[in-house]
Every structure is written in C-alpha cells, then in structure tokens.
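SEQUENCE WITH STRUCTURE:
===
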Amino acid sequence: MTMKRKSVAALASVWMAAMGAVSPAMAQRVVNVSPEVNAQNIAPTASVSGQFDTSTGTVVPDSVMIFVNGEEVTDRSTITANFFTYRPTSPFAAGTVNVRVEYVGSDGFKRISSWQFQVQPPRPAVEITSVTHNAAGTPLGPNSTFLVTVNGTPGSQGEVLLVRDGRTVQTLPVQEVSSGVYVATLTVGSNNALAEGVVVGRLRRNGQTSYAIAPQAAVFTTTATTGGPETVVEDATKPAAEPEVALAPTFTSPTDGGQVGGGSFVLTGQTRPGATVAIRVTGSTSVFGIASVAQTLLDSQVTADANGNFQVSVPLGVLTGRGTRYTVTATASQAGAQATSQMTLTHQ
C-alpha cells in the first residue's frame, strides 16, 4: 500500500452507528486522488478526482456525494462505480482546498473520505524579474552601445524608458531575443551626456502592465574614457554580452498541471539554442479501479532551433481515458552540461 493510499484510507471508515462495526479490511477506499493528499502549489483550475478501490466490494454510484470546501458539487461531478471527478466552474481561491467524499458500499455501510491540498496564488499576467544595463560601473563614451536587458514574462510587449536627469524621458524599443529575455540598445552620441539616467523596464501582456527600475543609474560622457600611462582602457564600443539562457527546459504548451485530450498532443518548450533535448513521456491509469497500468509513450530526442524552441508530437496510444496521468521529463544537453525539467498532465 502506498503512502497516498494509507493517508486517504486513514481518513475513511466512518460508519453509520445503526449498522454496527465491520472489519476495516472489508472497507472500500478512495485511492489515487488528484491532487494528491497535502499537495502544494496546485493550479487554481485543477480538477479533483479519485478512484474507488473495489477489490473488496463495489460502491453504489447514486450514493456518492462530493463536497469541496463544504459546498456540495455532486451535480457538477462525473461519478461511476469506479471513479469520480469534479472540474471547478471557476478557479479555486489561493489557499487550502478541502475535499470530502461520502458514499455507501455494497455492504450497506456509509463511509467518508477526505483530504486537502494547497492552491498557489494566481500569478500576474505579466511580471519583470530584473532590469540590468552596461552603463552602471563605467560611463559610456561617444559611439559606444548602451545595452539594457529586461527579464520577465515571455510573449510580452514592452519598451525601456530612459529618464534623463529627472527631466525628459526617452523611449527605447525592445526585442525578445529569447523566451522572456528582452533587449534594448542605444548608440551614445557625442552630445549625449547623461549624469544620472534612471532605466525603467515596462512590459505589457493581457491588459496588464508591469514596471521595474534598474538598481543603478546610467552614465554617458561626451569624451572617450581614458586611463593613466599604465592603465589598459577597455573598448567601450563593444556591447556587453547578453545573459545566458537557462539550459533547463521550460514547457510552454501544455504547462505543468494542465490537461490534454484526444489521441495525441504537441509538446513545445524552450532551452538554449542548439541544445539537444531528450524527451520521455510515460502514462499511467487504473483498469477497473483495481490494477494500475503504466506505459512509455515517447522516448525521443530533438534539437532546439536558433531561438531555443523545440517541439515534438506525443502519441497517447490506448492510454486516453479520463484522468490518465502523463509524466513528461525533458533533459537538455549542451557542451557537456545537462539540466532536467519535469511536469505532470492529465487526460480530460
């Protein structure tokens, strides 16, 4: 018996007083619940499901009642003699979600099983994690390239606002050079002195806008920076290197905790350009609520394109029943380094 089954079974076995006591070994149990018992960081749109362990008897489907946070949702649930599932009509609020399932077995006894999980707070439609530039440590002279990098939500629109000495604002367009990495450049002119430039990143997505300020001011000079007789002067015209993209694959569609349908789905993601990505997909489901069946559905390699994007079609074979769980593991390799990411999906 797995720890998950033990946890749920320990919460079951609430008997009707008028029926007397029955050996716990005779009790039907709720197993393979999703989200799992005490699971953390669950998506607000996650479905609730579970299976009835019918190895010691059957469950009367008409007796099943499902409660979520104290509200009965039986009429909005799908219930069979082996399985139940509930998909919320609106996203769960962040925090604890309590699930209670009441049912009657073929032996006439009523039982109650309950568990809880934690829903993650909703993430903003757009956010900025950092704003950096190359004019913080050393002033940039004429004909040098001012480079600003904004890291934030992929697929956004945005710009960089350069506030000059608290008086004027210059807008610099940005380009998304890789997933969530935006770059803006400006050639410093001979009459383009800047004593204290405030650098602000702005991203917009899905009707929301996010701002972030670089921690250091930008400084431009009207003359090239020079040093003493023994000082080696760096070439100020050479732009700073762009931040290195993380090697660990990011799943862009579908995303962790999501649902897929049909007989296949297309998996897309992003890693470093040119990296080799080994993708393994396994599926698992329960047959008649008794035996668990697992199968490797895909074991393949792809190469990320010049932008770091990769894509592969995943056939689901016979494992396409409602509630079937798929585990996706992607390992990216490049220049002797490796990084792995994993996510779980369910069949709707």
